[in-house]
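User: Before I run my own analysis I want an independent prediction to cross-check against. Here's the chain; please return only the structure tokens and, at the end, one sentence I can use as a sanity check.
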Amino acid sequence: HIEAMVKELGLLATLAPAAKVVFGMNYGCWLFHAAPYSSDRFYDTTGALSFLVAVLQEVSAQRTLSPRTAAVVSAGVLWCLRLGSFLFDRIARDGHDRRMNKMKGNPWLFLIPFTLQAVWTMSLLTPSILAVRHGGHHATPGHGPAADRPPPPEPIGPIDYAIGAVWVFGFALEVLADRQKAAFAVAGLREKQGFISTGVWAHSRHPNYMGEIILWAATALMAYRDIQSNPQCTVASAVLAAPTLTYLLLNFVSGVPILEARAQNLWGAQQDFRRYVESTPVLWGSPTALLGEMLN
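Assistant: Structure tokens:
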């Protein structure tokens, strides 16, 4: 029990600087803008910016990064820039986030999504922070006496390339799903047809969420391979917080349940929608079918 407590305290100390940034920015947005003006306009932007600032804070303290650490950090930054800009464009176009409509009138209730976003952001930062703090670059000369340096990690090999390919698949799937749904709305098909069931959406009812979970699983695996050989990192498995919490939030809290309930209310009586629901998986579509759709 004492050993477990020491490990947990070590992890908390490692994540503390990022937590100050993430929770500070999210609660600051809630306190000075969201609550006073009942506005969700900068909700997603605050989440993205807090991720970027925390990552840059960690990286700025390092002189060099191992190839795997650089890949983990770059993957997180690329994901954040893409999704953050997409969500900002969406709320600028729509004017509000439907998920927040019932919460904006109560400041304390409105605090819940900001807290959830901060916790989720911290889980997504865990692979990058642990890789930066304990990655393979710490085994190179210049990172303390040779006796104190951890053994070098395995050289980059086929497993790493396979993980990278999985990340690219997940990222591309999320991007394509978002673009197809945005094009569907811009073309006015949301008003005419209601729900999208073409493209990658023909193989999964939530392909963007599927892509998000996959890319964070790949990011976590790459980070784990970078830090597993460092005995100074006693909480390497903490990197799994990123895909685990992403899956739980999207599948049980803020994603699938809300959208599925809304879809049933809007189109549940339509025969074509019922056929779509019966023939299309909620989340995990066929990777080969989705890949074929993406290549087309």
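Sanity check: The chain is about 70% helix and 0% strand.
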